[in-house]
Amino acid sequence: MKAELEIKDKTKQTEGLKIAPFRQHIRKTSPHKHNSYFEIIYLTKGKGSHTIDTKEYEIKTPVIFTIRKEQVHFWDIKTKPEGFVIIIKKSFIDNCLDKDIKRLISELSAQTCLFPKDNTAIDIFEILLKEYQEKEKPNQPIIYGLLKALLAKLLESATPKISKNGNSTIFQKFIDFLSKENELTNKVSHYAKLLNTTPQNLNAICRKEAGQSSAEILSEHIINEAKRLLLYTDITVSEIAHRLDFKDNSHFSKYFKRHVDQTPVDFRFNNN
C-alpha cells in the first residue's frame, strides 16, 4: 500500500491529444490515476479484467472503457490485447472551438464501459491514427472531423441523453470542479459560488441534467474518492476525513456509513 496513489502520464507536455495503438505488452498493472487527462480505450481483442474504482469489468471484446482523471484503474489481462487509446487533456478541450466535440467528450465521459455491436469504429480509428502519426503537424480540421465522427460512433452504444438548454455548461463545470484533485468540499454552496449561481439554481440544473440533486451528485463524488483512498492507499481515516473537508473523523465516519452501510474502517478491512 502507498501513502499516495501512483499517477501516470502517457503524453508529452505539449500534447493536448494523443492517439495510439493499445500497448500489447500490458498484462497486469498496479492501481493508478492519470495526470489530468481523459482516456478512451477501445479493445478489439483480449481477455481478462479491468477494474475502475471499485468495479471490476470482464473484458469481452469489442469493448470501450473510459477513465476520467479522478478515477483509479488497473488491468489484469490474460491474453494478447489489441485496440486503440485516445488521450484527451484539459488543454485540448479548453482550446477546442468545436462545441460538438466538447459535448461528445462530456457525454462519453459519463460512460465507464460500453459494448459496441460490432467493430466498425476500427476504420475511423485507423484513419485517425494514420493522420495523427504520419504528419509532423497534423491537419487540425481533419483531426477534428475524424475525432467527432469517432466519438459519435462510440456513443451509439450508449443510452441517448440529450440536453435541451444551455444549463449543460454549468452542469459540466460543476462536474469538472468535483473532479479536481484534492479539492473536494462537502458544501453545495461553495460550488454554487464558484459557478456564479445560487444553490437552488444549481440544484434545479442538476435535477434537469442528471435526474439527481446537486447534494446527491456531490456525495457520490465524495464517497467515490473516499473509497479510492481507503482501497488503494494507506492514508488513515482521519487524514481522509481532513482531505475531504470533514470537521472530524466521527462526522466523516457517520457520513460514509449512511451512504455505504459500512464504516470506513470496515470497508477497508472487507475489501483488502
UniProtKB/TrEMBL annotation:
A Pfam family this protein belongs to? AraC_binding
Q: Which InterPro entries match?
A: AraC-bd, Homeodomain-like_sf, HTH-like, HTH_AraC, RmlC-like_jellyroll
Instruction: Recite the lineage of the species.
Output: Bacteria, Pseudomonadati, Bacteroidota, Flavobacteriia, Flavobacteriales
HTH araC/xylS-type domain location: 172-270
Keyword Phosphoprotein (UniProt): no
Keyword terms of this UniProt record: DNA-binding, Transcription, Transcription regulation
Which superkingdom heads the taxonomic lineage of this protein's source? Bacteria
Instruction: Report the protein name in the record.
Output: Helix-turn-helix domain-containing protein
Report the leader peptide range.
Answer: none
Q: Organism, per UniProt?
A: Oceanihabitans sediminis
User: Which molecular-function annotations from GO does this UniProt entry contain?
Assistant: DNA-binding transcription factor activity; sequence-specific DNA binding
